Automatic annotation (TrEMBL):
Segments traversing the membrane: 28-51, 57-80, 92-110, 116-138, 150-173, 179-200, 230-247, 267-289, 301-319, 325-343, 364-386, 392-412
Compositional bias segments (type: Basic and acidic residues): 443-454
Organism: Microbacterium luteolum
Pfam families: MFS_1 (PF07690)
Alphabetical UniProt keywords: Cell membrane, Membrane, Transmembrane, Transmembrane helix, Transport
Membrane topology: Multi-pass membrane protein
Positions of region (Disordered): 427-454
Stored InterPro entries: MFS, MFS_dom, MFS_trans_sf, MFS_Transporters
PANTHER family given in the database record: MULTIDRUG RESISTANCE PROTEIN MDTH (PTHR23517:SF2), RESISTANCE PROTEIN MDTM, PUTATIVE-RELATED-RELATED (PTHR23517)
The protein's name: MFS transporter
Length: 454
């Protein structure tokens, strides 16, 4: 058997082992991810085109309407996390999905900016609660090392669904035929019926909220949670990672590629396709490599890879409009995607290992808020810097940000519990002997338990 065959068999064996380790609820959640995100992939790249070129809104108004999705999501995330802890993720997710369905259906037929504003706010409500809700749901049904693997595989499937959806949408929509856009938004609404059916059917008995009495004192408000050193440093790391990463994917990267590297839109589209392909093909392999490793060390490697990827993109500015620049732009997205496969399994797993059942919704809401904050600020900074011709400074900021993420990971390693950092054993040399609250991976939440002895 050749090397390729051995690797394929190892991948299949690893995937089979992972699948067998999942509880029934986890299998239900994972088996429908790619289909759920297919509709989102069909609409995500084309919404602003729809508003500007099909409905005839001014480009500035279209951009402002698009920003309402992220702004609404950020506003809703905090209260959403509290509601998840109080009433359970299932109920909150059902409300969010109904809001998403209504928003997509309304957007499909909207011809006035006010109607679009209502539609995108409804979509933003779902974005605000879906991340902490589904992460809390996942953490409830999956624990231990399998939980980290689940987050990674889930991320690959999300990218697969969005990537395939984007390709289908690109071939299907026609700016001269508004009904094609109406169709994709209705498909987006229809795909949201899939998780809704799961929550009303196979997952209807899954509870994420604590079984404690309602009269029990509240535990872990946002202020108290953010006072924990591990949470504070992890949140800063998440925000900065998104600022130099995902926050640049819709603005900084394409703007630099077009204006500085001077590549075609086809090259930019191909780069995004390569990004999706790398994630889908490498995610499970990376999961095997990082299994049992300190998650903070994995993030340090990711930070270095991202810093190098920005150097690679910056180099394309020296040979604008050439085949070399095109290759560099595509390579940037491939290298960047390799780093993504390390970030997505680790950060959500740490948040959920730090949380208890009574605070899981709020921990995931903090994670979501940090992500959305970076996603909002990233395009703003990129627009200003690249608009002023500060492309060299822009690349320098991205590289410096990558190195800063690595430093934050070093700091986080000194204050985080070993179990939350991906270590299966406690009491080892150089780490505190921290007790756990049971096999589900729930740990003590006092700050003293997080600090490493000097």
């Amino acid at each position: 058997m050749n090397v390729r065959g051995i690797r394929k068999n190892a991948w299949v064996t690893g995937m089979r082992t992972f699948w067998n380790a999942l509880p029934t609820e986890g299998r239900w959640l994972l088996s429908t991810v790619a289909i759920q995100t297919l509709g989102r992939g069909m609409t995500l790249p084309f919404t602003i085109i729809y508003l500007h070129e099909v409905r005839g809104f001014d480009l500035g108004i279209s951009g402002a309407l698009m920003s309402l999705i992220a702004i609404t999501g950020l506003i809703v995330t905090g209260p959403g996390g509290t509601l998840i802890d109080r009433y359970g993720a299932r109920r909150v997710l059902i409300a969010g999905l109904l809001s998403m369905i209504a928003g997509c259906a309304l957007l499909a037929f909207a011809t006035h900016p006010a109607v679009v504003a209502v539609a995108v706010v409804l979509i933003g409500v779902n974005f605000g609660v879906s991340w902490p809700g589904f992460n809390a749901l996942i953490a409830t049904v999956v624990d231990g090392e399998v939980r980290q693997q689940y987050f990674g595989v889930n991320f690959a499937l999300v990218n697969l669904g969005i990537g395939v959806g984007g390709v289908i949408g690109g071939f299907f929509v026609d700016v001269h035929d508004p009904t094609t856009f109406t169709t994709i938004f209705l498909i987006d609404a229809a795909t949201s019926l899939i998780p809704l059916a799961l929550l009303l059917g196979p997952l209807r008995r899954v509870r994420t909220q604590s079984d404690a009495d309602d009269d029990a004192p509240a535990v872990g408000g946002y202020r108290e949670i953010l006072r924990r050193p591990a949470v504070l440093w992890l949140t800063l790391l998440t925000f900065l990672s998104v600022f130099i990463g995902y926050g640049q994917m819709e603005a900084g990267f394409p703007a630099f590629a077009r204006q500085v590297a001077e590549v075609s839109t086809q090259v930019v589209g191909l780069a995004f396709a390569v990004n999706t392909a790398v994630i889908v093909l490498l995610q499970f392999t990376v999961l095997r490599l990082i299994s049992g490793k300190r998650r903070t060390r994995v993030m340090q490697v990711m930070a270095l890879i991202w810093a190098l990827s920005w150097v690679l993109l910056g180099a394309t500015g020296f040979l604008p409009g050439t085949i070399t620049a095109a290759i560099g732009v595509i390579a940037f997205m491939g290298v960047f995607a390799f780093g993504e496969t390390m970030l997505q399994p680790t950060v959500p797993a740490i948040y959920n290992d730090l949380a208890s059942d009574r605070t899981r919704g709020r921990y995931n809401a903090i994670n979501s808020a940090a992500f959305q904050g970076g996603a909002i600020l990233g395009p703003l900074v990129a627009g200003v810097m690249l608009g002023e011709g500060l492309d060299v400074w822009f690349i320098g900021l991205m590289v410096a940000g990558g190195l800063a993420v690595g430093l934050l990971a070093l700091v986080l390693e000194r204050v985080i519990m070993p179990e939350a950092n991906g270590l299966s054993s406690v009491g080892t040399e150089g780490t505190p002997d921290i007790g756990t609250a049971g096999a589900s991976g729930i740990h003590r939440t006092d700050e003293a338990a997080e600090r490493r002895s000097p």
